[in-house]
Every structure is written in structure tokens, then in C-alpha cells.
Design goal:
Helix content: over 70%
Structural class: mainly alpha
Mean pLDDT: 86
CATH architecture of the largest domain: Orthogonal Bundle
Number of strands: 0
Number of helices: 13
Largest sheet: none
CATH topology of the largest domain: MetI-like fold
Length: about 325
């Protein structure tokens, strides 16, 4: 039998059957336990498989990556902090850190800012669904597909590069979008903004819809202009939503990889940390340095996740 058919059969039939069998086994075991202890034991047994998967596929790899970050190229000997020192002394890695900061700032500002602008401008108009559908469409494709599309958009040759065809049409020389820093980094960030604006727009639009019309009408009756209403009423009420979206986009910016890998592969100083980690792992075969970069990315994302969780808990407490 074809291995792919065997795998498909296992996924479609074997996994659900195993879960049903586990539940049946748990209930049989609970019959042997005193009834007063069943309410405490049942939840633990039911979530035990999830905890096991979490330990095997998340906790263990994380701890092992931290361990390897203190080891040499082939993870044979401990080398202390040398892999982390390499990150702060190597020119390419420092350039990747700078580019990641640019991604963090401008991807967040671009996606959230344009998303907010579109959500406000098309709010409560007849063609709102059409505009939102068009802007949200890039979310339906992968980052790799977006990178391929925009490689043609940025192509230096006017006969195949859309942007350079427009530029040369006005009599100017074609622009090498990929060969000069920081132009190439901003060109890549534009692709990320193009993909994330739809996400920000949908969430912010939902936040706008939740604002009471009575509150806005009261401000208009008091003589406030639309700009004053937005600045002193709408925007403050949207700040919690903007904070949540911003943290999500910041995490995407820190993990930026697909677009860079497909469009430039980090050449011409367009490197980012995730792409550098990939190169250290699979091109240079230096597992220690790759693990160190992974740990740094992890540590950069953790505070943002903690902030997000705290805000979520505060909102739940208010509700």
C-alpha cells in the first residue's frame, strides 16, 4: 500500500479512534476510583494527552534549544556564551537585528495605521463590504505566494516589473528595489503591510461597530466636528483593540521569514533574524548559533505575549 494512503488512513481514522479509545479507557479507570475523587481526577485524565503533546512538542524542544545555544557547531561541547557574543559582534547578524527593528516599527505602523484609516473611512457606507473584501483578499494567500507576486512587481526589468514599468513610463530610470539598503528592507515591509492591513481593518472595523451611536450623536449635538469626535471619542475607545492588534503584528514582524527568504534570501543587507537562523542551521550547519538566535527571538516575543495575556485578563475581569 502507498505510504501516503497509510498516513492518510492513520490521520483520518486512527487518531479519532485513538481518542475515543482513550476516553473509554479513562471512564473504565474512573469506575475503580472512589466517587468523591472522580470530579478532581477526570479533568486531569482528560487533558493528559494535550499536556503530553505540549511537553513533547513544545516544552522539550524549547529547553533543548536553550541547551544547544551554549554548545558548539555540532552540539558536542559546551562553549558558554560565545554563540551569543557572536550575535552582537558579527556584522550580518547585527544588520539582521536592525532590519528586524525596522520591520517591528514600520510593519506595525503601516498595517495598523492603514487598517484604521480604511475602517474609519468606509464605516457605514454602501460599498463598505466591497472595499473590505478587496483589502482582505491578500490574507487568503500565503507569505510565500505574496513574495513571488511582489518579486514580479519589483523586478528591475520594465517589461516584467510592474512598478518599474510605471516609473520608466514617466521617463525616469528603473529602480533596483532589492540591491540597495534600506530601500530593499522597506520594499519587503510593504509586502508585509499589504498582507496584514486586511487583518487590522477587520478587527478595527468590529471595534468601530461596537461604539454606541448615541455617544457619537451626543458629541455631534455638543458641536464637535468629525475630527474631534474621532480624536477624543472614537480613538480612545479603540485603544484596547489597537493594542491587541499591534502586539499581534509585532510578533509577526519579529518572526518575519517567508517574504525575506523568497524575495531576497537576506542578500544586500536585507537579512532578518529568522532568515539568519535558517542559514546558520541549514546552510552553515552551525546548530549552536542557530539555537542562540532562536532563543533571542523567543525572549523578544515572551514580554509581548505576557502583555497581551494581561490585557486579555483585565478585559475579562471588566466583563
Amino acid at each position: 500500500m502507498d505510504d501516503r494512503l497509510t498516513t492518510a488512513f492513520f490521520v483520518v481514522v486512527g487518531v479519532p479512534a485513538s481518542l475515543v479509545g482513550y476516553i473509554f479507557l479513562v471512564e473504565l479507570v474512573l469506575r475503580l476510583v472512589p466517587q468523591r475523587r472522580v470530579p478532581r481526577i477526570r479533568p486531569l485524565l482528560w487533558i493528559a494527552p494535550a499536556l503530553a503533546f505540549l511537553a513533547v512538542f513544545l516544552i522539550y524542544p524549547t529547553l533543548d534549544t536553550i541547551r544547544r545555544s551554549f554548545m558548539d557547531r555540532l552540539s558536542e561541547n559546551y562553549v558558554g556564551w560565545s554563540n551569543y557574543e557572536y550575535m552582537w559582534t558579527d556584522h550580518a547578524v547585527r544588520g539582521a537585528i536592525v532590519n528586524n527593528l525596522l520591520w517591528l516599527v514600520f510593519l506595525t505602523l503601516g498595517a495598523v495605521g492603514i487598517g484604521l484609516l480604511v475602517a474609519v473611512l468606509v464605516d457605514r457606507v454602501r460599498y463598505e463590504p466591497v472595499v473590505k473584501t478587496v483589502i482582505f483578499l491578500p490574507m487568503a494567500i500565503s507569505f510565500v505566494a505574496a513574495g513571488v507576486i511582489w518579486r514580479f512587481m519589483y523586478d528591475f526589468r520594465p517589461e516584467s516589473g510592474t512598478l518599474n514599468a510605471i516609473i520608466t513610463g514617466f521617463g525616469a530610470d528603473p529602480v533596483a528595489f532589492f540591491s540597495e539598503w534600506p530601500l530593499n528592507t522597506f520594499a519587503l515591509i510593504v509586502v508585509g503591510v499589504w498582507m496584514q492591513v486586511g487583518f487590522a481593518m477587520v478587527i478595527l472595523s468590529a471595534g468601530l461597530k461596537s461604539i454606541s451611536n448615541d455617544l457619537l450623536e451626543a458629541a455631534r449635538v455638543d458641536g464637535a466636528t468629525e475630527w474631534q469626535i474621532f480624536r477624543k471619542v472614537t480613538f480612545p475607545l479603540l485603544l484596547p483593540t489597537i493594542a491587541v492588534i499591534s502586539t499581534a503584528v509585532i510578533i509577526i514582524a519579529l518572526k518575519a521569514f517567508d517574504i525575506v527568504y523568497v524575495m531576497t534570501n537576506g542578500n544586500f543587507n536585507s537579512e532578518v533574524l529568522a532568515n539568519r537562523m535558517y542559514k546558520e542551521m541549514f546552510t552553515f550547519r552551525h546548530f549552536g548559533r542557530a539555537s542562540a538566535i532562536a532563543v533571542v527571538l523567543f525572549l523578544a516575543i515572551v514580554p509581548i505575549m505576557i502583555f497581551n495575556i494581561r490585557r486579555f485578563r483585565e478585559q475579562e475581569a471588566i466583563r
